[in-house]
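Cross-check.
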Amino acid sequence: MTPETLRQQFLTWQCRLRQIAMREDGGRPSEGMRPKILSPDARTLSEGVIVLLVRSDPAESTDFFQFQLRKNHDPNEVYQKGLSFLQSTHYHRASQFSDEMTALFLPESRLAGLLVALQACRLDFRQFGQSYCLPCEVRELAPEEPAYRNTLWHNRLFNAQLSDDVRILGFKPDWRAATEVQVEAG
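Predicted model, tokenized:
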């Protein structure tokens, strides 16, 4: 399998998991959206961190998220509007998403500090008999980056009280070293 084929299969799988989570579970992140994080030498750093998929051009969704949060002061209404948006066609085209995933951390997060220092990790995803092991380059996103803004406003749909004082990391897979495994049921 070519690295590009593996990349497309992974993004398609992730979009499908997110469609299911939005439509059937009220947006609650499923197991496959919370990869285990391992150090480059295979030490477990976290049993699971929620990662987001961000569109290659996230301006439209970021603008929508911001508008909803500024327009509505009722967190339940913000959540419902955001969920409706994410349930519609947001995750229908995997080709519209960047393969750099993001995750939001509190500023004092020891894990975020360690990942930035290491500049690399492995994300292990698993759900529905699929498993992907993705060696990733790790970087801290700057507040002016579109993926940073999208991640912050997306997270605010589910936690309107989230402050600006956060760290957002990007995880860019090395598709040449990535692997996909079909897990046998049993």
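Residues 3-24 form the longest helix (22 residues). The longest strand covers residues 130-140. Passed to J.P. for a second look.
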